[in-house]
Hints:
Elements: E1 7-17, E2 25-33, E3 37-43, E4 51-56, E5 69-75, H1 81-87, E6 93-103, E7 106-116, E8 123-128, E9 131-137
Antiparallel strand pairs: 1-2, 2-3, 3-8, 4-7, 5-6, 6-7, 8-9
Amino acid sequence: MDSLGKIKKIEEVFDLKVDNYGFRRMGGYKVETDVHVIQVLIQNYQSCCESWGYFSSDDDLSHFVGAELKEIDLTDTALNKQKVEESDYYSDGGGIQFVDFVTTNGVFQLAVYNAHNGYYGHDILVLKDNEIILDETL
Length: 138
């Protein structure tokens, strides 16, 4: 598989408006390589009593800056089980989406989650440049 580029930066993003995706504001992570920009995002507004957010595996993400990004995998398996349990995403409605970034320095994982009573879903997006890889509601 071709490289997705050398990772230049991994950062949190806040209150981001995604082109061609309506007026919704999103937050999450942006992984920038010398070839692509990958974003893992969730709508970032409170509707009622839902609990939503995003987190990364316990890795020091700066360890991956400079590594070659080999692949991006959508998965349902947590690298950080303690953070998943603390998120309480599974108690009512909602869910969680994990995204694995496989690099020459190992794997790091980003995740978005939402726990709600069935009425307050949040849209999630995984983007590669302007291409939507995943568009779901948790």
